[in-house]
Amino acid sequence: MSESFDQINPPPRLLMGPGPINADPRVLRAMSAQLVGQYDPAMTSYMNETMALYRQIFETQNQWTLLIDGTSRAGIESVLVSALEPGDKVLVPVFGRFGHLLTEIAHRCGAEVHTLDVEWGQVFTPDQIEDAIKTIRPKMLAVVQGDTATTMLQPLEELGAICQRYDVLLYSDATASIVGNAFKADEWGLDAVSVGLQKCLGGPSGSAPITLSDRFVDVINQRRHIEAGIRDAHHQDSQGQIIRSNYFDLPMILDYWGEERLNHHTEASSMLYCARECARIVLQEGLENTIARHKLNGDAMRAGAEGLNLKLFGDQANKMNNVLGVYIPEGVDGEAVRQSMLLDFGIEIGTSFGHLKGKIWRIGTMGYNARKDAVLTTLSALENVLRRMGHKLPQGEGIDRAMAVYNGEAS
Ligand SMILES: *Cc1c(COP(=O)(O)O)cnc(C)c1O
């Protein structure tokens, strides 16, 4: 039996969860542009321009700043599988779900993975991390900057100097936090960084910008010569082990993005158009302004949530600007609230995972949706739904408190 379906026509939604969020209309237009050949000078120029744009996004001079085709974890996996050999030690401070993801991927690379743990809703001090580095002596410290699972932002400022002291590579997954919070790859001494588009960059998931320091590139290039060994197994020597992925083999991907343009994959052109436009939007607004906009709207959402008589989750001094965790009030069915928000009002807010499941909602103000009207619409809908579900709250207080933040009368 042959089936037929209508053309794609998604319902209108305001996505105010922890990601994905609504794409900026400019990004959607860029994505719909016509394709050109992989080595067309227009395409290779777009690739070079995208590298230059993301150097500004990451605040780096790193030559090797490019895109990995795939969702954010493609960026994570390319960094870890290219740098880590079986038996290498990695230290992962885990303060949320994505720390577990780094752990899991490093484990699959055959690395000896050591974790540091902290109660969810907290972050680590530099001293805690330095002490662990001193005893474990890892090859790499792999740390998430902002973990949407807990809304926490791990301060990275001091970790670069610590890692240099002990000759440790510093890698960060900044997918959730980039352009919504300060991130300075060079000043902070990062060796590798990977992100995605579907959080504050305001695009769809499917492209993972990364940047690599010269020090990091030297490490992965030591495994480059082994490529030849694939064809001639006897060629393998003891200097290093083969990178256990073709798709994520960074030395090969650098050859494709570099001047030689050696064929590897076929660049996902539509995603490249999209990643390029995401960066252009941020840089036209100004990186500082974009971060300030995320802070303003995040502060307004937080003040509004308190006005709705909701209790805040986690250490507020180390929270990301762009995601808020609030406890689901006693006696209120969290999923019924999310259902009504989605189906009656067309607004999505986030649930939680792991031991926070059923305990907190996560509300995002990111990218294109870090806007006053999106915040106020979400708060007024939430007030209505909460009231109908039996939660006691002072009428109008959510909007009033958010407005006070916008008017500079409160923080
Ligand atoms: C959202 C998020 C991701 C997303 O990974 P995908 O592969 O794009 O689903 C990765 N890391 C962090 C820290 C995130 O917050």
UniProtKB/TrEMBL annotation:
<dbReference type="InterPro" id="IPR024169">
    <property type="entry name" value="SP_NH2Trfase/AEP_transaminase"/>
</dbReference>
<keyword id="KW-0032">Aminotransferase</keyword>
<protein>
    <submittedName>
        <fullName>Alanine--glyoxylate aminotransferase family protein</fullName>
    </submittedName>
</protein>
<keyword id="KW-0663">Pyridoxal phosphate</keyword>
<dbReference type="InterPro" id="IPR015422">
    <property type="entry name" value="PyrdxlP-dep_Trfase_small"/>
</dbReference>
<feature type="modified residue" description="N6-(pyridoxal phosphate)lysine">
    <location>
        <position position="199"/>
    </location>
</feature>
<comment type="similarity">
    <text>Belongs to the class-V pyridoxal-phosphate-dependent aminotransferase family.</text>
</comment>
<dbReference type="GO" id="GO:0019265">
    <property type="term" value="P:glycine biosynthetic process, by transamination of glyoxylate"/>
</dbReference>
<feature type="binding site">
    <location>
        <position position="362"/>
    </location>
    <ligand>
        <name>substrate</name>
    </ligand>
</feature>
<dbReference type="GO" id="GO:0004760">
    <property type="term" value="F:L-serine-pyruvate transaminase activity"/>
</dbReference>
<feature type="domain" description="Aminotransferase class V">
    <location>
        <begin position="42"/>
        <end position="206"/>
    </location>
</feature>
<dbReference type="InterPro" id="IPR015424">
    <property type="entry name" value="PyrdxlP-dep_Trfase"/>
</dbReference>
<keyword id="KW-0808">Transferase</keyword>
<dbReference type="Pfam" id="PF00266">
    <property type="entry name" value="Aminotran_5"/>
</dbReference>
<dbReference type="GO" id="GO:0008453">
    <property type="term" value="F:alanine-glyoxylate transaminase activity"/>
</dbReference>
<dbReference type="InterPro" id="IPR015421">
    <property type="entry name" value="PyrdxlP-dep_Trfase_major"/>
</dbReference>
<dbReference type="InterPro" id="IPR000192">
    <property type="entry name" value="Aminotrans_V_dom"/>
</dbReference>
